[in-house]
Amino acid sequence: MTLAAASLAVPALIGADAPVRAQGNCPNCDLPPGCRGNGNQRPPPGNGNGNRNRNCQRITITIESDIDFGRVVLLGSGEARVLLDLESGRKTVIGDVDDLGGMPITGRAMIQGAPFEEVVISIPNEIGMRDPNGGTARVREFVTDLDGFPRLDSDGQLEFRFSGTLVIEAETDASGNLRGRVPITVEYP
Predict the structure, then answer these.
(1) 100: left (phi over 0), alpha (psi -120 to 50) or beta
(2) Which residues, at least 6 apart from 92, have a Cβ–Cβ distance to it below 8 Å?
(3) Which pTM was predicted?
(4) Residues 32-63: tens digit of each pLDDT
(5) Of 66, 65, 60, the residue nearest 185 (C-alpha)
């Protein structure tokens, strides 16, 4: 039997007491449209088009809780999956695996920026997990509780939950305390 405890650390938590600035290919996408300078889809602030009082607050993301799949034991050499339900937080195990308890936790993040602005949030399709002794597993099929076009509220905030499916493949050694990083990026469109 092999014991595997799995949790995910989201990069925004690592060594950061303050919120992390948004990341991405656009050098000023952490600023709302209209605050990024020339060549933007909206005129810059104060040009006489009625947006001189525009809120040009940079966007930040703070991870309030990591994903934790709790403890599971592999019973055989087949593939195993561990799912965390976003609504209930309940853990479901599928395949050659049994639940040994531990408190499963879905991830939670807070975005802050300019009120009423739309945001684009990117989460990878899959990430790898490892332990110090060489054990590996993957987390796939990330999900969130976000609507199709997320928008910050009147206070410039948006909180969302996220989770994924832990996949332990038959040919991998998944023993140990597995950890991985989920790079979540957020920017204004």
Answers:
(1) alpha
(2) 82, 83, 84, 85
(3) 0.75
(4) 877 876 544 444 444 444 445 567 889 999 99
(5) 60
Q: CB-based burial of residue 107 (10 Å sphere; 0-12 exposed, 13-18 middle, 19+ buried)?
A: buried
Nearest to 2 by CA among 139, 96, 102: 96
| DSSP structure string for 91-129 | EEEEESEEE-----B-EEEEEE-STT-B-EEE--SEEEE
Cross-strand bridge partners of residue 20:
61
48: left (phi over 0), alpha (psi -120 to 50) or beta: left
Tokens 């050694």 belong to which residue? 173
